[in-house]
């Protein structure tokens, strides 16, 4: 069955089927463009370079935004044929609306929105430059590590919110405590609870800038207690993310192993099954070496299960 133009574009953008090589080349081009664009934005912040190469920076911005706009519109157009959004029970408008709200689509929109808004509104160039640097997050689409990290954040969202809520309570308690102890001795540094929050934040995050420190014995004792408490508090979100990150890796490997197991039910891989596994490998972000090892291992185990372990005869 021949594919429509929209289905072909979706396959290229997804990197599936026979369009994997074309998609890989497109991904390399877009990654290079994003990196080049970010470097140009950073260099544009140097006044002397801006004055000397203003036209060059302008053309880089216009061409880059033009390409990013085309990419965004193509992804919006063909998202109805993507596996993650395809739903025959929903209208194309609803599917596209769902795609617009997805994290990667929001990042793509942020990459082009500042320049498009600049046509209609006047912005502080420093603010605009910082917002344009958000384009570096477009690399999330091509980075396995970033996708795993985002999945880990999503998986542990409730636990992380609980941890940050506890840290907020400790922050308030620490600010109030050091304010009561030190505000009479150091009114310029601990004159109010909001001012004391600077010290509490630096202490809880174990940064300890040293610009604001307690000088009374009770204040130093209280600061030591907060410092010891903060070591455990900071470790909670870190531990949650590390555990979830490893869990996401395990889930992706298990999903691929399960697909290989189903493909080897008949004892061998045909061309269509191998193509499906390769597409799944790319989607899950597994390396070719890791995928080949999994296939070889399960093929070997499958072959061994066909023979009696005692007599060696074929079952």
UniProtKB/TrEMBL annotation:
Which InterPro entries does this entry report, sorted A to Z? Answer: Ion_trans_dom, TerB-like, VG_K_chnl, Volt_channel_dom_sf
Q: Where in the cell is it found?
A: Membrane
Organism superkingdom: Bacteria
Give the originating organism.
Pseudoalteromonas luteoviolacea
Please give the chief subcellular localization of this protein: membrane
Gene Ontology MF annotations: voltage-gated potassium channel activity
Q: Do you know which PANTHER family this protein is assigned to?
A: POTASSIUM VOLTAGE-GATED CHANNEL PROTEIN SHAB (PTHR11537:SF254), VOLTAGE-GATED POTASSIUM CHANNEL (PTHR11537)
Q: How does it sit in the membrane?
A: Multi-pass membrane protein
Q: Name one GO biological process term.
A: action potential
Pfam families, alphabetically? Ion_trans (PF00520)
Parts of the chain that traverse the membrane: 28-46, 58-78, 99-123, 160-181, 193-209, 221-243
The name this protein goes by in its record = Ion transport protein
Ion transport domain location is 26-251
Please provide one cellular component term from the Gene Ontology annotations of this protein.
Answer: voltage-gated potassium channel complex
- SUPFAM superfamilies annotated for this entry? TerB-like, Voltage-gated potassium channels
Q: Which keywords does UniProt give here?
A: Ion channel, Ion transport, Membrane, Potassium, Potassium channel, Potassium transport, Transmembrane, Transmembrane helix, Transport, Voltage-gated channel
């Amino acid at each position: 069955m021949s594919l429509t133009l929209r289905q072909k574009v979706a396959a290229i953008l997804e990197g599936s089927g026979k369009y994997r090589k074309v998609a890989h080349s497109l991904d390399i081009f877009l990654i290079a463009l994003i990196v080049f664009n970010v470097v140009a934005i950073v260099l544009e912040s140097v006044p002397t370079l801006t004055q000397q190469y203003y036209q060059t920076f302008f053309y880089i911005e216009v061409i880059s935004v033009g390409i990013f706009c085309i990419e965004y519109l193509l992804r919006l157009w063909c998202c109805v044929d993507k596996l993650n959004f395809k739903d025959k029970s929903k209208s194309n408008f609803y599917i596209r609306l769902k795609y617009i709200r997805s994290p990667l689509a929001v990042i793509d929109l942020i990459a082009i929105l500042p320049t498009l808004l600049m046509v209609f509104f006047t912005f502080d160039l420093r603010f605009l430059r910082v917002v344009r640097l958000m384009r570096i997050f477009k690399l999330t689409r091509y980075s396995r590590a970033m996708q795993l990290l985002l999945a880990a954040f999503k998986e542990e969202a409730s636990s992380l919110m609980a941890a940050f809520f506890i840290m907020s309570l400790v922050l308030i308690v620490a600010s109030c405590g050091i304010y009561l102890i030190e505000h009479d001795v150091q009114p310029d540094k601990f004159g109010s609870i909001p001012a004391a929050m600077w010290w509490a934040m630096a202490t809880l995050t174990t940064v300890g800038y040293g610009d604001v420190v307690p000088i009374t014995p009770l204040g130093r004792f209280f600061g030591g207690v907060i410092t010891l408490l903060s070591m455990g508090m900071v470790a909670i979100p870190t531990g949650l993310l590390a555990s979830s990150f490893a869990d996401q890796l395990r889930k992706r490997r298990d999903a691929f192993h399960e697909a290989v197991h189903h493909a080897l039910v008949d004892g061998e891989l045909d061309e269509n099954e191998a193509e499906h596994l390769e597409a799944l490998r790319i989607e899950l972000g597994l390396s070719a070496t890791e995928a080949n090892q999994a296939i070889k291992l399960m093929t070997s185990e499958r072959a061994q299960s066909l023979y009696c372990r005692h007599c060696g005869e074929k079952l």
